[in-house]
Amino acid sequence: MPTAETTVTTTHTAALARLGYALSDATRTGILLALRKSPARPSDLADALGVSRQVMSNQLACLRGCGLVDATRDGRHTLYVLTDPHLAPALGELLDVVLHIDPDCCSGDGCTCS
């Protein structure tokens, strides 16, 4: 596993750029934050995030393409999960950094942090 002392390669840069791209859209970010807690069905994610099922399908396809989520069958349903167990705590740490930098970002009724 790379550490801070590891020489940064173009592969490392590309991997972080994929994560940055995934986080650049509020719906994709909401999906990733929701999946930190538990696997979810696309319809449940769409309802929770207030988007259409078509938008959810497109965003989940993007996150699959970025290698951040996997789809697994659960009977007749599909559940989405984060691909790596390190991703959930990393997203939590990123959220903590945002809250440290801008503690007022999630104050009031217009909170977009989850």
From the coordinates shown, what is the CATH architecture? Orthogonal Bundle
The biggest beta sheet is recorded as: 2 strands, antiparallel
Quantity of strands, as a count: 2
Helical/strand content category: mainly alpha
Helix content: 40-55%
Poorly predicted spans: none
How is the secondary structure organized here?
Blueprint: H1 10-23, H2 26-35, H3 42-49, H4 53-65, E1 69-74, E2 77-82, H5 87-101
Antiparallel strand pairs: 1-2
GO molecular function: cadmium ion sensor activity; DNA binding; DNA-binding transcription factor activity; lead ion binding
Pfam family, one: HTH_5
Organism: Labedella phragmitis
Key attributes of the depicted protein:
mainly alpha; 2 strands; two-stranded antiparallel ribbon
Structure, explained:
The longest helix is centred in the C-terminal third of the chain and has 15 residues, at 87-101. The protein is globular, with a radius of gyration of 15 Å. It has one domain: Arc Repressor Mutant, subunit A. The two termini are 29 Å apart. A hairpin with a 2-residue loop joins strand 1 and strand 2 (77-82). The chain has helices at residues 10-23, 26-35, 42-49, 53-65, 87-101; strands spanning 69-74, 77-82. It has a two-stranded antiparallel sheet with strand order 1-2. The model has no long low-confidence stretch (mean pLDDT 88). It is mostly helical. Helix 3 packs across helix 4 (53-65). The protein has five helices and two strands. Helices cover 53% and strands 11% of the residues.
